[in-house]
């Protein structure tokens, strides 16, 4: 079964962020990457980015960075009430 063109476009947009996550070895660079991914046009799926090791490490990073992981979780799985 072929993927919907919109879904394919979203996955293609996310792919560059997944690749960049490999070099985001500090919490600051991982947080910046989350910010870029959630702000990028055509990026609507985020679960794959959540699963990358350097982004997952934000879960247990210092408090100034953990909210970036929470933000990405909301973008991946949440609803508007979760965000607001």
Secondary structure elements and their pairing?
Blueprint: H1 5-21, H2 27-39, H3 47-50, H4 53-56, H5 63-77, H6 80-83
Helix pairs in contact: 1-2, 2-5
Radius of gyration: 13 Å
Task: Show unreliable segments.
Answer: none
Mean pLDDT, nearest integer? 88
Shape call:
globular
Helix percent band: 55-70%
Helical stretch tally: 6
Beta-strand percentage? under 5%
Question: What is the chain-wise order of helices and strands?
Answer: HHHHHH
Q: How far apart, in Å, are the first and last alpha carbons?
A: 36 Å
Largest sheet features: none
* Count of strand segments: 0
What structural class do you assign from the helix and strand content?
mainly alpha
Describe this structure in words.
The protein is mostly helical and 84 residues long. The protein has 6 helices and no strands. The chain has helices at 5-21, 27-39, 47-50, 53-56, 63-77, 80-83. It starts with a helix and ends with a helix.
Defining key terms:
mainly alpha
Question: Can you describe this structure in just a few lines?
Answer:
The chain is mainly alpha-helical and 84 residues long.
């Amino acid at each position: 079964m072929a993927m919907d063109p919109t879904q394919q476009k979203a996955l293609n947009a996310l792919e560059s962020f997944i690749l960049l996550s490999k070099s985001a070895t500090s919490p600051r660079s991982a947080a910046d990457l989350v910010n870029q991914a959630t702000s990028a046009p055509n990026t609507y799926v985020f679960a794959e980015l959540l699963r990358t090791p350097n982004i997952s490490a934000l879960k247990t990073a210092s408090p100034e960075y953990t909210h970036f992981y929470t933000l990405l979780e909301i973008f991946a799985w949440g609803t508007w009430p979760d965000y607001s």
